[in-house]
C-alpha cells in the first residue's frame, strides 16, 4: 500500500467562499451562516477524485468572514467521508500542547488514521488581543515555543503502543500498562506529564504539516514537518525553495523524501483558454477596491494603504516583522519588477495571493504542474479553488483526469491513511 | 415548537464501555481502539427514541481508559445525526475562553443548533501535571476563573446577530458590520477583544450545563447554568438539592424554570425483576477488587485504600478539598449509616457511583422516575448505561415506551434545537 513516488500528491486548500478575494460576490457562492454542507459536498467530490487530503487554514481572530473552527469541522467531515486526508491548522502560540495533541489524536483515531496537523505560530495583533496579550509574541520566542510545542505533541502521540488495547477481559485493566508511556516533559515553555488519554490510530500519529517561509520557519520545517506548504509565484523561486528545504532536511539527518514540498496552486480552469480567461475576468471584475486594499495591506505586514492613490505606485514600506518579511519582499519585488500600481498589485494577488497561478485549459494546468514536478520544484500541490463550488469542480472534472491520463495521479486510493496516501 | 413542561427531559450520559466499573469486562462490550462507531450507533439509537441529548464527561488526563476527546467526537456525531442534542464537557481551568467559545459555537453551527457546553473546573493533580502546574488550582481560584470564563464565553457567543450574514453581494463585506459586536473584556483573569469568528447558530447559543455540588458550585450553577446535572442517591436528598438550586436561581433574578435539574440515573432494566437482578449481578461479579478500590479511592478524595482490609470498615478520612467534599461526605454517610465494609461500599458505587440507582422492570424504573419528577426532585434525568451497548438498548426499548404510554415523554421531536428540546 501507499503512494507511487512518480505521482503527485494533491490536496485541496478549502476556504470559505473560495480563495479569490471577491469569491463571496460570485453568483454561485453561497452566503449561508452554516457552511458545513457546502464543505461536506466539496470534500466528498475531492474524495471521489482520490485527492490526498483537504486542508483548512485558521486564524484565532476574525479575518474576512466568520467560518467554522477547523478541528470541529474536520471531525464532522471525518464522519462524512471514508478515505481522504483531513489536515487542519492549530497555532502553537495560544494553545496548550496537551490539548492540541489530544484533539488531533482524537480526529486521527475517529477517522481511522486520516488526520494532519498544520503547525503554525500566530503573529497578528487581532489574534493576540483574543488571548490577553496586548502585543503579539516576538518572532524568535514564537518559534522557540513552537519547537518545544512540537516536541511535546509528538511525544504525547507516542503514549500508546498500537496493540495496547488488545487485552483479555480477565485482566485488571482495559489496556496493557506495559504498552503505555508517560512523557514527563520539563522544558523552558512547558511541563507536561502525560500520557495522552487517546489511543494510537492506524497511521501511528497525525501527519505534521508546516508552511514557514522565513529562515527560522524553514529551519523548524526541516526539523519537524512531513509536508511543507508554500507560496511560490514562479518556477525558479520554487526550485530554489524546494532544494533549500531538501538540503536543510538532509542536514537534520532526515531523508529528503521524508518531507513533501507542496506549493499552493491557484488555477482557473476552462474547457478552452477563452472560457478560463472569462471565468477569471468575472472574478477580477467583482473586486471591491476596499477589499483589494485590505488584502494587500495585510500581506505587506498590516500596513494601511487607504491614504495612497489606487493608480499610483506602492509607497516605501516600513520593515515588517520577520514572520511576514518574506511575503512583503515577494510583493515589493513584484510591484517594482513590473512597475505595478497599487490597484494592479492587488488585482495580481486577489486570486492566488502570491501563489503559483495558472489560468487556462486542463492541458495547460497539467503541463505546468508536470513541469514543476519534474523540474524539482514540487512533490505535489495544494489546490486553491478560486470560488466554491465551481472552481474546485472544474479542477476535479478537468485537470485530475488529464493528470491521470499522464500517469501523474492515482486513479484509486491504494492506502487507507493520510500517511499512506502521501507515501510517508 | 419546544418541549412540554409536563414531560421529562432525558439525556444519555455516554461513557466508554458504560458506567459500571466492570463494564469493559462484560462479554458484549467492545475493546476497540477506535470507539467512534460504537458511540455513533448508540447515539443514533438514542435519537430514534427522541432523547433530548447525549452527554460526554471529560478529563484532561488518563482516567480509566483512553477514549475520544469530546469536541471532536461530538462534531463527528453531529454529522451522523439530525436532531439529538450534543453536550460536551470542557474545563475552564486549563483552557482559554476564546478557544472554548469558538469550538462550541462551531459545533453548534455545524449541528444546526444542537450543542451544549458542560462547564467544569479541574481539581485533580494528574490533570494539573499535563498543563505545567505542580499543584491543582485552589478551589476558590478555580471558581472565580470559571465565573469570568463563562462571562467571556457567553459574551463572545453574542458577537453576531442572527441575520448578520444576510447581505447583498453588491456590498463591500460578506456580513453586515452593524450586526457584529466586539467584546473588549478586561477582567481579573482574561482580556479578550473579540468578536468571535463563528456566526450564530439557529438556537442562538449553546446550552450551558453544570454539575457543581459544593456551595460555590451551586452558586455558580444558579447564576449561569441552564441545565444542572447532579448525583443524588435518594428522593429526599434530591428534593433538597432541587429546591436549593431553584431557590438560588430565583435569588439570582432568574425564573425557576430557566434551569433544568437532571440527576443521574443508573438503571439496570429487565423484562422481569429477576432478569434485571441477574444482569446487575453479572456486572457486580466482574468487579476486580483493585478496580473497585481505585474507584472508591478517587471518589473519597484521591485517598489510597490499598493498605486496608477489604472486609473491614472504611477508615477515618482526612478532609479533602472543597470540590470533592460533597462526594466524600455522601460516601462516608452511606458507609456509616449502613455499616458497610470497604468491599460492600465499592460494590455499592461500582455502578452508579452514588447516583440514583434502580434495578428492575421498565414499570419500576418509570415509577421511580415519575415519583422524582412529580415530587419536586427532578425536571428530567441523565441516564447512565451500565454497559454499552445493551444497557442503553434496554432503557430505550423498555423504559422510554413506558414513559411515553404515561404521557411523560415525547413520541416525536417537536423542535429541532437542543434549546427547543429542553424547553429553554
Protein described:
2 copies of one chain form a homodimer. Chain A has 424 residues and is α/β, with parallel strands linked by helices. In chain A, helix 6 links the parallel strand 7 and strand 8.
Keywords:
homodimer; 424 residues; alpha/beta; TIM Barrel; 2 domains; eight-stranded parallel β-barrel; two-stranded antiparallel ribbon; 14 helices; 39% helix; globular; NTA_MOA (chains A, B); oxidoreductase (chains A, B); oxidoreductase activity, acting on paired donors, with incorporation or reduction of molecular oxygen (chains A, B); monooxygenase activity (chains A, B)
Helix and strand topology:
The structure is a homodimer of 424-residue chains.
Chain A: E1 9-14, H1 36-48, E2 53-56, H2 70-78, E3 85-91, H3 97-110, E4 115-120, H4 125-128, H5 139-156, E5 185-186, E6 191-192, E7 207-210, H6 215-224, E8 227-230, H7 235-251, E9 260-270, H8 273-284, H9 289-299, H10 322-338, H11 342-349, E10 356-361, H12 362-374, E11 380-384, H13 390-405, H14 418-422
Parallel strand pairs in A: 1-2, 1-11, 2-3, 3-4, 4-7, 7-8, 8-9, 9-10, 9-11
Antiparallel strand pairs in A: 5-6
Evaluate the radius of gyration of chain A: 22 Å
Q: Spell out the CATH superfamily of the largest domain in chain A.
A: Luciferase-like domain
Strand composition percent of chain A: 5-15%
Number of domains of chain A: 2
Largest sheet of chain A: 8 strands, parallel, barrel
Q: In CATH's first tier, which class of the largest domain in chain A applies?
A: Alpha Beta
State the helicity of chain A in percent bands: 25-40%
Amino acid at each position: 500500500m501507499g503512494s507511487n513516488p512518480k505521482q503527485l500528491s494533491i490536496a485541496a486548500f478549502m476556504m470559505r467562499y473560495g480563495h479569490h478575494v471577491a469569491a463571496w460576490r460570485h453568483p454561485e457562492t453561497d452566503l449561508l451562516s452554516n457552511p458545513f454542507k457546502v464543505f461536506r459536498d466539496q470534500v466528498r467530490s475531492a474524495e471521489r477524485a482520490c485527492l490526498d487530503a483537504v486542508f483548512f487554514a485558521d486564524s484565532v481572530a476574525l479575518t474576512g468572514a466568520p467560518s467554522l473552527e477547523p478541528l470541529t469541522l474536520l471531525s464532522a467531515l471525518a464522519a462524512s467521508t471514508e478515505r481522504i486526508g483531513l489536515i487542519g491548522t492549530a497555532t502553537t502560540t495560544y494553545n496548550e500542547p496537551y490539548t492540541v495533541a489530544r484533539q488531533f489524536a482524537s480526529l486521527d483515531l475517529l477517522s481511522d488514521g486520516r488526520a494532519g496537523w498544520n503547525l503554525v505560530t500566530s503573529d497578528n495583533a487581532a489574534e493576540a488581543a483574543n488571548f490577553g496579550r496586548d502585543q503579539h509574541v516576538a518572532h524568535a520566542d514564537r518559534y522557540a515555543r513552537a519547537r518545544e510545542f512540537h516536541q511535546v505533541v509528538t511525544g504525547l502521540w507516542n503514549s500508546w503502543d498500537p496493540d495496547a488495547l488488545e487485552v483479555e477481559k480477565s485482566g485488571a485493566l482495559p489496556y496493557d500498562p506495559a504498552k503505555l508511556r508517560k512523557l514527563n516533559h520539563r522544558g523552558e515553555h512547558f511541563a507536561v506529564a502525560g500520557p495522552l488519554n487517546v489511543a494510537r490510530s492506524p497511521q501511528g500519529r497525525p501527519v505534521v504539516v508546516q508552511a514557514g517561509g522565513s529562515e527560522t520557519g524553514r529551519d523548524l520545517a526541516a526539523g519537524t514537518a512531513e509536508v511543507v506548504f508554500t507560496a511560490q509565484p514562479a518556477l525558479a523561486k520554487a526550485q530554489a525553495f524546494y532544494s533549500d528545504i531538501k538540503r536543510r532536511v538532509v542536514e537534520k539527518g532526515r531523508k529528503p523524501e521524508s518531507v513533501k514540498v507542496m506549493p499552493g496552486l491557484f488555477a482557473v480552469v476552462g474547457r478552452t483558454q477563452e472560457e478560463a480567461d472569462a471565468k477569471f475576468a468575472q472574478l477580477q471584475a467583482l473586486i471591491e477596491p476596499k477589499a483589494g486594499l485590505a488584502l494587500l495591506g495585510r500581506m505587506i505586514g498590516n500596513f494601511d494603504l487607504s491614504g495612497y492613490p489606487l493608480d499610483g505606485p506602492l509607497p516605501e514600506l516600513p520593515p515588517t516583522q520577520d514572520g511576514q518579511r518574506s511575503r512583503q519582499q515577494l510583493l515589493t519585488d513584484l510591484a517594482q519588477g513590473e512597475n505595478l500600481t497599487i490597484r494592479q498589485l492587488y488585482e495580481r494577488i486577489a486570486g492566488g495571493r502570491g501563489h503559483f497561478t495558472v489560468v487556462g485549459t486542463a492541458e495547460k494546468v497539467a503541463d505546468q504542474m508536470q513541469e514543476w514536478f519534474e523540474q524539482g520544484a514540487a512533490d505535489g500541490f495544494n489546490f486553491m479553488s478560486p470560488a466554491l463550488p465551481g472552481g474546485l469542480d472544474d479542477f476535479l472534472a478537468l485537470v485530475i483526469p488529464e493528470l491521470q491520463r499522464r500517469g501523474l495521479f492515482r486513479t484509486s486510493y491504494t492506502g487507507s491513511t493520510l500517511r499512506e496516501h502521501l507515501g510517508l
